[in-house]
Specification:
66 residues, single chain, alpha+beta, 12% strand, two-stranded parallel sheet, 3 helices
């Protein structure tokens, strides 16, 4: 189940500061990583299911500030 993006933004915002790294070791859809990208945090993630990689990369790339 994908976590709502707004919830992930709230969690990342409350639990990290700019410049810190957010790690998600079961990233699934990439919601937490997208939130970290949107808030200009560094991020890293991994997932056992390789089918999650391409959709998560696309989702996260949409939230990276340019």
């Amino acid at each position: 189940m994908q976590r709502p993006h707004s919830l992930c933004v709230d969690i990342v915002e409350r639990l990290s500061l700019g410049g810190q790294t957010v790690a998600d070791f079961c990233f699934g859809s990439g919601s937490a990583l997208a939130a970290a990208a949107e808030l200009e945090r560094n991020f890293l993630g991994c997932d056992i299911n390789e089918k999650n990689l391409d959709p998560a990369v696309m989702w996260v790339s949409e939230h990276i500030k340019k």
